[in-house]
Design a protein that fits this description.
Blueprint (H helix, E strand, L loop, with lengths): L3 E6 L2 E6 L3 H4 L2 E4 L2 H10 L5 E4 L2 E4 L3 E3 L3 E5 L3 E4 L7 E3 L4 E4 L2 E3 L10 E6 L5 E3 L2 E3 L3 E9 L2 E3 L2 E3 L12 E7 L2 E3 L2 E3 L3 E9 L2 E3 L2 E3 L4 E6 L5 E3 L2 E3 L3 E6 L5 E3 L2 E3 L9 E4 L5 E3 L2 E3 L3 E6 L5 E3 L2 E3 L3 E5 L7 E3 L2 E3 L3 E4 L1
Parallel strand pairs: 3-4, 4-7, 5-8, 6-9, 7-10, 8-11, 9-12, 10-13, 11-14, 12-15, 13-16, 14-17, 15-18, 16-19, 17-20, 18-21, 19-22, 20-23, 21-24, 22-25, 23-26, 24-27, 25-28, 26-29, 27-30, 28-31, 29-32, 30-33, 31-34, 32-35, 33-36, 34-37, 35-38, 36-39
Antiparallel strand pairs: 1-2
C-alpha cells in the first residue's frame, strides 16, 4: 500500500503519495522503442529501466522523474540525425551502459545526445557517444557526475563541430575518466565553479582539449591533452589548481600546451609539457605559482607577456626546448 501524508494547501485538504526509493523501486525490461518510451513515461519514481540489446530510434526523449536507465551490451539509442536524443529535467537520474549515436549538426541549436537542464545529483556513466555533435551538455546544474564515458565525434571543421562535454553554469560537477576525441573542444567549462576534472584523455580535438571561461575555484588533475589544436585555455578565471597533467603534441602556428589569459591566484604543479609549439603562454596572469613542471622539446617552453605580474616560477625543469623562457 502506498503511504501518504495530508496537508492543507491554499484552503484545500490534500493527500500526497510518498514513494520511498528502497521499498517501491522496480526493474522494468524493455525490448523495443515503443516499450522504452512507455516505460520512461509510466514508471514509478526510482524505478530501473533495463534496455535490452538492440537499436532504438530515439528523438527528444525526456526524463521527468528520478530513475535509473541501464543498457545491456550493444544497446544503442540512435538519434538518426533528427535532433537531440535524451533530455533530463529531473534530479537523481542515472544513465549508464548505453551507446548514443547520430545527433545531427545544427547551426541554430546546440543539439546534444544527453542534455541535463536545471538538475542535481545526476550520474552519466560508462556510456559511448558516437557522431553526436554535442555529446553531454549540462546547463544550470549542480552535484552531477560525468564518469568514464567515450565521446567520439567526426568533426572536420570548427564551424560544424560541437563540444564533447559542455557545461554552462554549473556547480560542484565531477568530470572523471572520460575519453573525448574529434570535437571542437573536448571539455568546455563556462561559469562553472567548485568543480573537479581528473583522469580524462582529451585528444585530436579541433580547438582545445579543455576550455575554461569565467570559472572559479576548480581543479584539474592527471588529465592528458594530446594532439589538439591547442591543449588547454584557462581564461577570465581565478583559483584554478592545475596538477600532474600531460600536455603533449599540441603543435601548430598558434598552438600551445596551455593558454593562461586574465587569470589570478592559481597553481600549476607537476605538469609535463612535451612537444608543444609553446608550453605555457601567459597574458594577464597574476599571482600564479608555477613550480615543479617539466618542459621537454617544446618550441618555446614559456612565453610570458609583460602584463603578467606577481607570479612565482620555481623548481621547473627545462630540457631540449628551442627557447626556454621568452618574455
Amino acid at each position: 500500500m502506498t503511504r501518504t501524508f495530508s496537508c492543507w494547501v491554499m484552503g484545500l485538504f490534500v493527500i500526497v503519495p510518498i514513494y520511498p526509493k528502497s521499498t517501491y523501486a522496480n526493474t522494468i525490461e524493455v525490448f523495443t522503442t515503443k516499450e522504452l518510451y512507455y516505460a520512461v513515461e509510466n514508471s514509478n519514481p526510482y524505478d530501473t529501466i533495463l534496455v535490452r540489446n538492440g537499436t532504438y530510434q530515439v528523438h527528444e526523449l525526456t526524463i521527468r522523474k528520478p530513475m535509473v536507465i541501464v543498457g545491456s551490451e550493444f544497446s544503442i539509442l540512435d538519434g538518426e540525425s533528427k535532433g537531440e536524443i535524451l533530455t533530463i529535467i529531473s534530479d537523481s537520474v542515472t544513465i549508464k551502459g548505453l551507446t548514443f549515436q547520430n545527433v545531427g549538426v545544427s547551426f541554430l541549436k546546440d543539439q546534444a545526445a544527453i542534455r541535463l537542464n536545471h538538475v542535481s545529483n545526476v550520474i552519466i556513466e560508462n556510456n559511448r557517444l558516437l557522431n553526436t555533435f554535442f555529446g553531454i551538455y549540462l546547463q544550470y546544474s549542480e552535484d552531477c557526475h560525468i564518469l568514464n564515458n567515450e565521446i567520439i565525434g567526426n568533426s572536420k571543421d570548427e564551424a560544424s563541430a560541437g563540444n564533447a562535454i559542455h557545461i554552462w553554469k554549473g556547480d560542484r560537477i565531477r568530470v572523471e575518466g572520460n575519453l573525448t576525441e574529434y570535437h571542437r573542444d573536448g571539455i568546455y567549462f563556462e561559469f562553472v565553479n567548485n568543480s573537479h576534472i581528473s583522469d580524462n584523455i582529451s585528444r585530436h580535438n579541433l580547438r582545445y582539449g579543455l576550455h575554461f571561461m569565467f570559472s572559479n575555484d576548480d581543479e584539474y588533475v592527471q588529465n592528458t591533452f594530446l594532439n589538439n589544436g591547442a591543449g588547454v585555455a584557462v581564461m577570465f578565471s581565478r583559483n584554478i589548481k592545475m596538477t600532474s597533467n600531460l600536455f603533449e603534441k599540441n603543435w601548430g602556428g598558434s598552438s600551445y600546451g596551455i593558454l593562461l589569459k586574465e587569470i589570478s591566484r592559481g597553481t600549476m604543479k607537476k605538469n609535463r609539457f612535451i612537444n608543444n609549439t609553446i608550453g605555457i603562454y601567459a597574458e594577464g596572469a597574476t599571482g600564479l605559482e608555477i613550480s615543479h613542471n617539466d618542459f621537454v622539446s617544446n618550441g618555446k617552453a614559456m612565453d610570458i607577456k609583460g602584463n603578467c605580474i606577481d607570479n612565482s616560477i620555481t623548481y621547473n625543469n627545462f630540457l631540449s626546448n628551442t627557447f626556454e623562457v621568452y618574455t
